[in-house]
Each structure stands twice: as structure tokens, then as C-alpha cells.
Amino acid sequence: MKKFSLFLIFLFGVSFLLTLFLKFGKTKAEISTTTVNVTVSVCGNNIKETGEQCDGIDLGGATCQSLGYSGGTLSCRPDCTFDTSGCYTAPPGGAPPPPPTTETKVVLQGKAYPLAKITILKDGEVAQIVSADINANFKTEIKNISAGIWNFSLWAEDSKGRRSITISFTVTILEGKTTTISNIFIPPTIELEKTKVAKGETLNIYGQTAPESQISIHVESPEEIIKTTMAKKTGDWDYPLDTSPLEEGMHTTRARAESPEGLKSAFSSVLAFYVGKYKPEEICPKADFNKDGRTNLIDFSILLYWWGKYNPCVDQNGDGIVNLPDFSILLYYWTG
Q1: Residue 1's pLDDT is what?
Q2: Against a cut of 0.85, is the pTM above it?
């Protein structure tokens, strides 16, 4: 009896440490950041790039006539927009050109989710919070920024309050130039209907992205399984995953999107789920084995009775045997 008591004390100590890890080790794991490739355009290098109408002598083939004027000479302003002051309509005329700008600023544009709130950080500090339009497009300017190397991070919140992964990129800003960062595509949000299913049960996976984008759902098993679905016009997407081909045990899933324009996002956050032997209704939530609304000594006694045996109610982690991990879960939910 004394040896058995010492064994229980040892189990309690180990499980207490495991409980602390489970309980307080979550926050950092939920914060995820990824680095993505975006298109960066620099106004002032005499090369017309994405987001610019022109750049110095590079007008991209545009002329006064192609812009609807009768004639004249088209030029480019320092902010890489067309200067049409040299163009005219019959009879010839035109307004004086606007003063040139030497402002240093950054333009960020891309896609998120319809009406999403997008938080933009500059070197880790919130610079702006902007909203996407109904088509998930957003564009904003950051002014009064000094020349140098800056790190920008963005994350979005969808209409259901789900937050995306944070994407980051580093850009060199030149003095007196407009730097345009385009083709930003914030990864989709993702959510699981449940985190534990019986083998063969359908697991619904869903989230939001830009309207009518193609979603690729990646499920990590011994061999990666990839499924695809299309987002609705609202940006909502969902996929009913058949878990029959999956082995029993832990699995993870993540998703990425490709917009109708061909923009490809990075992966979403990674979510874990468990495929087990039992149906969800056979499992006793929160280690309440006698279903009295509390997790206490009675439940501990029931766990000891089934120790090393097979019971879907007491086997909290669904590994087919009642053992130390189940005892740790019981301690986690202990109410006394």
C-alpha cells in the first residue's frame, strides 16, 4: 500500500508539470508569423513597375492621344503619375503643371477578405488599421516615413472575428521616393468544427478569403493529402473532410488561397485534430466520468479502476488505453 501511495504521488507530480505545460504553454504556440514574397516598386528609377502609371522617361507606351487628348507631350510627375499639363485638346490649352513632390511614402495594396479589418505594423508598432472593400481589395499610404530599411507586418480579421496569420516583409525606402508594395495576399482564415473525430466521421473545415478564390486544404498524414474547394462571393469557404483514409492519431491541416487574378497566398495557421477509435458521444468531456458536473476523487477512482484497460469514456486522449496522459488530463480539469 505504501509503494502504491508513493507511485500515486510520483504520478501526481509528473502530471502536475504536464498540466502546467498544457495550461500555460498555449499562448506562444497560437502566435504565428510567416514571411511572404510581395511586389515592391520604387518610384524614381526610370522603370515603370507595378502600381505606377509611369516612371521618369518610361511612360509605358502611353501618349496624350492614348489618354484622350488631341495632342501634346505627355510627361511623368515625380510621384510616378502622368503629367498631362503638356497635353491639349482643340483649341490648344492646358493648366500649369502642379508642383513636384519630394515626399517619402509607402503605398501598400493587395487582397484580404471582404470588409476585413487589416492591421499594419511598421517595425513591430501599429502604423494603421484599414478596411478592405466588398471585393477584399485594400490600398493605403504610409506617409512621413524616413528613408531606410523597414519591416512591415500585416494581419487581418474576417467577418466572424477569426484572425489570420501575420505576414511580414522587409523593404528599403528611398528618400523622396514613393515605394509601392503590391500583390499582397493575406492568407485565409481557417477553423475546425471540432478537434476530435472518430475514424470515418466528417470533419468540417472552413474560413474566409478573397471572393471566388481557390482554396487548397493540406492535411498532414503519413502522406500529405490535398483537397480543393472554391470560396463563395462572400469570401466564405468550407470543405467536408472524410477522415476514413486517415490513420488514428494526431493530424494537422492548413490552407492557402489563389485569387481569380492569380495571386497566391502563403499558408494559413496550422490547426491540429485527432482521429480516434470512438464516437464523440462516447467520450466523457473534461474527465467527468460519472457525469455529475465535477471532476474530483470519484472520477479519479473510476480512472484507477480502468487503468491499463480500454474504456472510451475514461480514455481522454483516445489512444486506446487508460494511462498517464489520461490522468494528466483529469488533473487539468480537476474541480475538487
Answers
A1: 47
A2: no
Query: 107 to each of 31, 67, 136, 288, how far by Cα in Å?
Result: 27, 24, 17, 55
Q: Are strands 33-35 and 166-173 parallel, antiparallel or unpaired?
A: parallel
Q: Domain tally for the chain?
A: 3
- Give the end of a domain, one of 138, 156, 185: 185
**Which of 254, 276, 298 is at the close of a domain?**
276
The CATH number assigned to the domain holding 21 equals: 1.10.1330.10
Q: 288 and 259 in one domain?
A: no
The position carrying cell 502536475 is 16
| Weakest mean pLDDT among 5-9, 161-165, 172-176, 191-195 | 5-9
Residues 33 and 165 sit within 8 Å (Cβ to Cβ): yes
pLDDT of 59-111, one tens digit each? Answer: 988 998 888 888 888 999 888 899 988 887 775 445 544 445 568 999 999 99
- Does residue 162 belong to any structural domain of this protein? yes
pLDDT tier for residue 28 given thresholds of 50, 70 and 90: very low
Cell digits of residue 21: 505545460
How far apart, in Å, are the Cα atoms of 276 and each of 116, 163, 198? 36, 29, 5
Q: How far apart are CA 319 and CA 202, in angstroms?
A: 20
User: What backbone phi and psi angles, to 5 degrees, belong to 92?
Assistant: -55, 145
Please provide the size of the chain in residues. 336
Dist CA 210 CA 197 (whole Å)? 29
Is 118 contained in some domain?
yes
* pLDDT, mean of residues 140-168: 94
Query: Rounded to whole angstroms, what are the CA distances from 191 to 129, 187, 206, 217, 252?
Result: 24, 13, 5, 12, 12
Termini Cα distance of the chain: 24
20 and 136 fall within a common domain = no
Cell (9 digits) for 227: 483537397
| Angle formed by the axes of helices 324-332 and 297-305, nearest 10° | 170
